[in-house]
Write a structure and sequence with these properties.
single chain; 280 residues; alpha/beta; Rossmann fold; 9-stranded mixed beta sheet; 9 helices; 9 strands; 19% strand; disordered C terminus
Length: 280
Amino acid sequence: MYSPYRFADRVGDIGQPLPDPFKQLADNRAKFRRGATSLIAGTPGAFKSVMALNMLVTWAGQGIGSLYFAADSDEVTVVNRLTGIVTGVNVERVERQMMEDKGKRQEYKARLYEDLPGVEFEYEQMDFEDVVKHVKSYEAVYGKYPDVIFIDNLIDFVESPTDYGGMLEFIRSMDGLSKEIKAHVCILHHAKLRDSNKSDNDSDDKDPMQPPADWEVQGRITQLSRLVLTICAVGLHVNMSVVKNTLGPQTRDASRVFSFEVYASMKVAEKQSAYAASAA
């Protein structure tokens, strides 16, 4: 039996929000909470990983440690993007200097070391048990568990890209882990392409800058995550919607939109567009 007035002694930091990575989400009371999972879903090329890396950098600057499982990418790409986000240098220039300029490479390494304390990456595909092993290894090195765990991308942690039952089970397991170690788990996932089924309401006539609705998330596996964000992109302009938010406003049809611009450095800036204003 559990007496409600004693909850604080039992749960500790569970339910406590992390610092807000984006002001627009904070204004919408969309919080990334300890002991919970979030889902960021979008079609390929929607800058899901770039948004997640910007969140990681922002949190690192506030003393929030992260363990990022980047099975959908490679170390060179991730390091170049992180360097661009941290320094503001065009990511193509970063890549060139990393390869050709030893002095610049050392300078960038120093910035990554200084600006990203408590941040670790893994690049292999693995199952939940392997994730747990890496989380334990993080604790062995830092003396505490990571505050945030990123899973990029969900399909890389199950046997098949269409194994939606396996994906739901993985999310359930990660949700349990988040509560056990009092961390937040942010999972990146795909939304279906608009032309995949033209008999649905989400036909090709839909505005390309309209983020996916919650029913457009592949497998519709939004049951367990307390926060579900969907994103889309045209060029370097990104729109995001809060389609599930257990403790704040939500629009399942993605009708309320928050806008961002991705710079050439891969750093993300918030912006208020006419589209977002009219949809709000």
